[in-house]
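I had to read the description of the data format several times before I understood it. Each protein is reduced to its one-letter sequence and a matching series of backbone shape codes. The format is easy to grasp once an entry is in front of the reader. For illustration, here is how one protein appears when written out as sequence plus structure tokens:
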Amino acid sequence: MNIDFVAKPATDAAVLVVLIAEGAKLGARGDALDKMLSGALQRSLALPRFKGKKGEITELLVPSGTKARRVIILGLGAAKDIAALSLREAGGALAAHLVKEFETTATVLIDPVKGCKLDEAQLAGELALGAQLRNYRFDRFLTEQKPDKAKPLAALSVVTSHLAAAEKVMARLGAVANGVALARDLTNEPPNELYPESFVARAKSLAKLGVKVEALDEKQMAKIGLNALLSVGQGSAKPPRLLVLQYKGAGTKKGDAPLAFVGKGVCFDSGGLCIKRSGAMYDMKGDMAGGAAVVGLIRALAERKAKVNVVGVVGLVENMPSGTAFKPGDIVKTLSGRTIEMIDTDAEGRLVLIDALYYTASRFKPKSIVDLATLTYSIQAALGTVFAGIFANDDDLAEQLTNAGQAVGERLWRMPLDKVYDEHLESRVADIKHHADDSESGDAPHAAALLKQFVQDRPWAHLDIAGREFAGKDRSTCPAGGTGYAVQLLEQFVAKTEGLV
């Protein structure tokens, strides 16, 4: 969707949108339009059912006094509660309404809102971002366009007096939208199209944004000892890869420790020899959503020319059953040199992550490490789809990530790390085992306890995002399908370190 910031609406604009806070009066642009419509807007605001709540919509069809065929009033909620997230949700509601009405363009009149902490440019940008996020489509495999199916929005014109400021806001937020879209695309791709090698090929497109892209193949990984990761992929005809993305923004100094983000990239998880039941396997194309979020984040940061030093590492495998698949009871030496006993081949993600985490910690010596993984069913049982789980060995890092998630609507709930979980991972035949005996009732903290041992005591947080990778139905800023979960959260976290928010 093309977004333009303009000083005044086109005379032939087909759809005009006016914003109103709950209980507030129309702003200058809204008031001027109301005069053109002989008070029709004010009469609409007086409708008993319309309160101006966030995302609430009422409209005038074929109003006299303007060439527009439709004038929409969009509620923003109470002025004191208007924030980036609420504006994104309101923008999403607007986009959904326009698409439902088969409108492909609209012009939004921005007026400052008395009592709101955000200025006119921020109002414009955040609303536009919400519309972009909701307007996303994954339709490249559709060969026929049904005539009764609405098309996504093609363009949105946003009228503001602060064009330069709005463009500056959108330079960041538009990059966020593109990062989310990339993560959603990767998550939505069918497994016959997306596998380790093709995932790497998609990531190589980031090179044009100034990202250094490396991909270690199976021979290179075997040479340096990423045996835990390799063991997961050895049952598949599609060979594994370790994807490494480096971005150094302007102003960063040589030798500055980077912020590191590590993603689980299991492109398809059959469960291996501990094979999943059929009903649990369909969505396993999304078991690489953590890796997709890392790639989407790096794209967003590079596109907006963030002044940070970041590295992204994604362990890419398929977990398949075959005569070469790894087996319960196998023991391998990890990259750290420690041996690990395999217990359940359907708990493969943590094996991918321990090598990827140790590789990241030892090679880059980062300021902090955040890993993301659709890791355990137990986190879904505990938190549902309201929160993702966060485990951390550093309170400040946990707080920063939690606050970032709260700001963008990707909420995190702190979960425990405790030495008792470590004790449950003790093995009689190896240095450690990768799955606890009782982990069906506490798999998430046991998995986190395992990962913690491979970060070399760096400040670290683990986001268990299982259940957040897909939306089963349309949401305020996300249509059904891949969500791109955590791209906004992590970009907000990085932006805070830059002093942008």
Notes: The chain has 15 helices and 19 strands. The two ends are 25 Å apart (CA to CA).
